[in-house]
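Let's practice the habit of predicting before peeking. Look at the sequence and jot down your guess about where helices and strands might fall. Then scroll down.
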Amino acid sequence: MNYTIIKLYPTFLIILYCSINVLVAQNVTIRGKAHVSYAGKKIELLSYQDLITKITIKEGVDTIESDGFFELKFQADFTQAIILKIENIVAKLYVEPNFVYGITIPEADKSLERDKDTELEISPNIIGNDSTELNHLMYDFQEQKNKLFITENNMFLNRPEIFKRTDSLKLNCNKRYIKIKNAYFLNHVEYEFASINMSVARGKNALINYFIIEKPIQYSNYDYMAFFESSFKGYLTEIASTRKGQSLFNIINTKASWEKLNAFMLEDKFLKKDSIRELVAILNLWQMHYSNDYSPEAIKIICNDFLRETKNKTHKTILSNMLAHFNKMIVGTPAPDIIARTKLGTMGSLNSFKNRWIYLNFFSTSNIESVKEMGKVYDLKKKYADKIVFISICLSDSIKEYMNFLKTNPKFDWNIWYNYDSSIPITAKDKYNIVGTEAYFLISNLGNLAASPALSPSAGIEKRFNAIFKIRKRQNKIGIK
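Done guessing? Here is the structure:
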């Protein structure tokens, strides 16, 4: 089966097959046909919020039709690995911005099934014959790797033999992919080799120096981050075992000090660069939070201080993701106060609405679904303005987008604030640990979280409003009050 994309040029039409770059506003579309055994089931498209926590975000969902067809759409600003999930069946796919993909999903090997809580990984098939498409290249490299490292009868390979085969694979790939320009794929190959060498301890210090210290950080490249993790997992505990003086346990559990932890790390030869040192700290703090040796509360305090101090925007995002996972914004706890830029350029605060119920939502002009919800917030505001304060926080990248949104939607006359301002030390998005660009919260008149997260307008938050304020529909039948 072939899907087609048509590009219009001044004098002629060129028909291109799926998986080829398209110059339309629609970002990423995945059209597929799944095995008939999946008919009627939901298929989800999941992205990674970051490659340290590897917590996934549901980006889209569709129901597989009786003939196996489905379609998913996704906004991707950079090349990345995503997950397609049908119940406990998962498939990894690499997507690039401005592409349409045609795929087929085969039936899972039933002999591998154990229980519904165990994920079974399968490989989707890419429709099309473009050998330079990223997923085709990934599969081709894996095939070359398997030829050398999967032996008959699973014969054991000693270290010298692994070194020999790794070097042979490297020479083969240098020739095979000499004309390939896809940077994501070339980095995939490079860090696959780095990981193979690291797994057999082939000069660990030299590998870290060459592949990490001397190279830029690739936050969105799955294989780079996997290599980074294998290089620095448990690293702080490792270097602490060789140090005299103040212990890591004391710095974290007793002092709960980011300043002291940062100073402790600065003494290490690999951690002189701010960007590397901070990412190593993030990785290790994430792992320590789930260790019995360290206090989860102390880890949270350090992460909060770290979030406030770092100037690295990507690190701020990962730390916010971690804290969101740690805290979960528990119902009944005090709602964090926020400060954000108002329409007039002044600073607005939740604290200025004490003793009032607040419906707080986060949106972005780039998130079509969240913008649609704003129209429904408007309808709710007209009905409940005397009972509830409505506050919307815009998470768009630029203040120009925010101002244009206000200008084109003059009827949206409630508190619509902008998340970012140089005078704000911690943004509303960080305070509420928002992952993505859409979220909803209901805050009681006592200042506590009444619903966290709350339902969106289209999901039925109005029923909650009616229950709180004891609002009942008028009955017009005779004899009913």
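How did you do? The first strand starts at residue 4 and ends at 8.
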